[in-house]
Design brief:
The complex is a heterodimer. Chain A is an all-beta fold. Chain A has no helices and 9 strands. Chain A has a 5-stranded mixed sheet with strand order 1-9-8-3-4, with no helix packed on it. Chain A is globular, with a radius of gyration of 13 Å. Chain A starts with 8 loop residues before the first strand and ends with a strand. By secondary structure, chain B is mainly β. In chain B, strands 2, 4, 5, 6, 9, 10 and 11 form a 7-stranded mixed sheet that branches. The mean pLDDT of chain B is 91. The chains are: A mainly beta, B mainly beta.
């Protein structure tokens, strides 16, 4: 599975959009981009995933560049409850492992 | 209703003991996983079972033995516990949908070996 690079930490004011970038320049054609987050002491929580098109669900939007070498997770209106470590993961197929990196620690502040 | 549940939530034990952690999922998924998160917060896959068959077995000491009595359960048995086994262990499950799948995680079991 391709490796990813994320900033170590980011801050965001409550109510503003949080844009979390991820670089995955060695991604191959059949690899998906997944985003998970881990709120302190809890299990990782699935957020969203995509292959090449932009995706949106009730939690977030995922923007994948045309060359697929990077992506951005957007939390449109961040709240204090969104404070967590966010992991960008690329992987192929099904029943395969998730390889977690160090992620981005997002701190949402008042 | 809890989708992926683990018991116990906390486990404190002495070195050398044998212990088990249980995992159950009520999502109807056919694949289950065990991950370990160490003190530095790195999350790593340990095992994966698909329809009760082992499909992923990372470099894990053979003191760790997963057991899957049925598709809804994947238990982790650890023999001769060592200090370095102290960690949070997460169970997850998934079901293939259109060539990819999403893993859903349990709340974790914090194991402390004294």
């Amino acid at each position: 599975d391709a490796k990813t690079t994320q900033p170590t930490s980011m801050d965001c004011a409550e109510g503003r959009a949080a844009n979390l970038p991820c670089n995955h320049s060695t991604i191959s054609g059949n690899e998906y981009v997944y985003w998970y987050r881990q709120i302190h002491s809890q299990g990782p929580q699935y957020i969203i995933h995509g292959l090449k098109n932009n995706e949106t669900n009730e939690m977030a939007s995922l923007i994948i560049t045309e060359d697929r070498k990077s992506s951005t997770l957007i939390l449109p209106h961040a709240t204090l409850r969104d404070t967590a470590v966010y992991y960008c993961i690329v992987r192929t197929g099904t029943a395969s492992k998730l390889t977690f990196g160090t992620g981005t620690r997002l701190q949402v502040t008042l | 209703d809890t989708a992926v549940s683990q018991t116990p939530k906390y486990l404190v034990t002495q070195m050398g003991n044998d212990k088990s952690i249980k995992c159950e999922q009520n999502l109807g998924h056919d694949t289950m996983y065990w991950y370990k998160q160490d003190s530095k917060k790195f999350l790593k896959i340990m095992f994966s079972y698909n329809n009760k068959e082992l499909i992923i077995n990372e470099t894990v000491p053979n003191r760790f033995s997963p057991k899957s009595p049925d598709k809804a359960h994947l238990n982790l048995h650890i023999n001769s516990l060592e200090l370095g086994d102290s960690a949070v262990y997460f169970c997850a499950s998934s079901q293939e949908r259109a060539s990819t799948d999403t893993q859903y995680f349990g709340p974790g079991t914090r194991l402390t070996v004294l």
